């Protein structure tokens, strides 16, 4: 491109690749810059599905879901902090995002229920496999088919503007430390969240000090910092979703394990909380424990209620014992304490009342051998806040005006999810707004001479 490509997309996750493919289909030349050696970002780690309402699959299965219900559920799940217009945009167009992914070859033949959703609306591969790899697989293939140039290990370090304040290009740093610039009139920021940037996390939420993360190491909030330097506004930066039960390698131990009956004990073999409090509250209690970690403990009767627990065993995350004393040894906690804890819990369960912490539901006595435990710690999972955008994915400045030529989509933006993101909505967000960012960048380029 003698005069640079029409557009540059920063970040090769789900949002960035959706924008790039859209731009290419509109006849634009585009270069995707990705700082990591691999494409996929956090997107490729996504496990659930892609939420959408009023899809052909739902209709075929007789699921009476509506876009309005999708909107309501998400607004409630986000503690009513969601930006109504952005949320309306996502919930209205998510079904088109599903159809678009299918047109690119995605298998989204199954639909399941995720937390906070009134109806099953999490679309996923027919064999029940994870959504993230499927989304990245088809978007990567689409980008290759269109001969879109994707440069890995190319990190954007600065956004360049002209005298009028419009975007004029990007400055890029390569793996050998060289920098170069690309001239372009349209930039889509799709750099993801900041869930792996301790400094930034603690700046906005001091209580997150010491948290692990379920995020990929590239989730450092670069796009937010780059855009702020040229006047962009941010929104909801404090809204950070923590999860209390991440294994040391970052694997999430699902909330449903506790919901199905498991308890939490600390390094002394003692319970310390009502295990069914909100994610934030349980995380905070965990950090007050010696070593700032806990064990999720369940028995064989509980294991039989959910396949998930076997999967943790397959991943090598569980320790087990044929007696509580054996389990205590495997966990390296005092056996006498753990025995007393389990005995007290069984007694409370029989009485139907948690005498210590007021847990509202005691589904299992936890008395059936063998016994299992997974070591867990709180981890940052999703950053809801980020760059302030409008429904056209234009990045707004602190006066609420669009910065000419600058667009953003995906986890780098804020407002869509309010105070809490529901499972299945990350994919709906990134593909929907990634496509919109591509369309808007094209529309902007049309207005130039
Ligand atoms: P989303 O879900 O919003 O698409 P992802 O985390 O999946 O977000 O993808 C964001 C991608 O952007 C990641 O692959 C990340 O490595 C990349 N990225 C982050 N910062 C930069 C940067 N400064 N330059 C280039 N790529 C970046």
From TrEMBL:
The keyword Amino-acid biosynthesis does not apply. This is Flavocytochrome c. It comes from Sutterella faecalis. The keyword Lipoprotein does not apply. Residues 6-425 form the FAD-dependent oxidoreductase 2 FAD-binding domain. Belongs to the FAD-dependent oxidoreductase 2 family. FRD/SDH subfamily. SUPFAM superfamilies: FAD/NAD(P)-binding domain, Succinate dehydrogenase/fumarate reductase flavoprotein, catalytic domain. It comes from the Bacteria. Keywords: FAD, Flavoprotein, Oxidoreductase, Signal. PANTHER family: FAD-DEPENDENT OXIDOREDUCTASE 2 FAD BINDING DOMAIN-CONTAINING PROTEIN, FUMARATE REDUCTASE. Its cofactor is FAD. InterPro entries: FAD-dep_OxRdtase_2_FAD-bd, FAD-oxidoreductase_2, FAD/NAD-bd_sf, Flavocytochrome_c, Succ_DH/fumarate_Rdtase_cat_sf. It holds the Pfam family FAD_binding_2.
